[in-house]
Write a structure and sequence with these properties.
Elements: E1 7-8, E2 12-16, H1 19-27, H2 29-36, H3 49-61, E3 70-75, E4 80-81, E5 83-87, E6 96-103, H4 112-125, E7 132-138, H5 143-150, E8 154-161, E9 165-173
Parallel strand pairs: 6-7
Antiparallel strand pairs: 1-2, 2-3, 3-4, 3-5, 5-6, 7-9, 8-9
Length: 175
């Protein structure tokens, strides 16, 4: 099982969400700010409450999922929540996890998405079960594809998703 602990990087304190933290996030920004002791801007996520509720449900259903869902990046200097990230569940039987991340608009183009992604990568690879990490992006060059490229991911597949159209699958294998 992944060690569920706060990850520190140069600019970020990355907090793993427990069911209690997710409950506070679902309840609203004021509740979350109080729970974490940080500033929570009005708009800090584009994923929405649905994603938080889904992660809450998964964590509540299975103790083995702890540490494999949502993480909140706190900008240390500003003590402010600036997005979210994490994994889409525990490692598969083949040793794969999927990452996702987002940074609030006001904090983009500062290298923070890469900082968050690298922390998630290093955190996942600490678990001996994890052999590879995947991610999916829109099938076009964009900030997310640049983060993945700079983090040594390789584009491995083009997928025609029924909801999103063409998307790119990226992979990073453990060395």
């Amino acid at each position: 099982m992944i060690i569920e602990m706060t990850v520190e990087t140069r600019n970020l304190r990355i907090i793993p969400c427990t069911p209690e933290i997710l409950e506070a996030a679902i309840a609203g920004n004021k509740s979350l700010a109080k729970k974490l002791g940080v500033t929570v801007p009005e708009i800090w996520t584009e994923f929405g409450i649905g994603a938080l509720q889904y992660a809450f449900d998964k964590l509540s259903e299975d103790e083995d999922e702890r540490g494999w869902w949502t993480y909140f990046p706190i900008h240390k200097q500003d003590n402010k929540l600036i997005g979210s990230g994490g994994y889409k569940g525990k490692p598969t039987a083949g040793g794969t996890v999927e990452i996702g991340y987002e940074i609030a608009t006001d904090y983009r183009n500062r290298g923070l998405a890469k900082e968050l992604a690298v922390a998630l990568i290093e955190n996942a690879f600490k678990d001996k079960r994890v052999k590879s990490i995947i991610a999916h992006t829109l099938a076009e060059e964009n900030p997310s594809t640049r983060v993945l490229t700079k983090s040594n991911f390789e584009k491995v597949e083009v997928i025609n998703d029924p909801d999103d159209g063409l998307i790119w699958k990226w992979e990073l294998k453990k060395q």
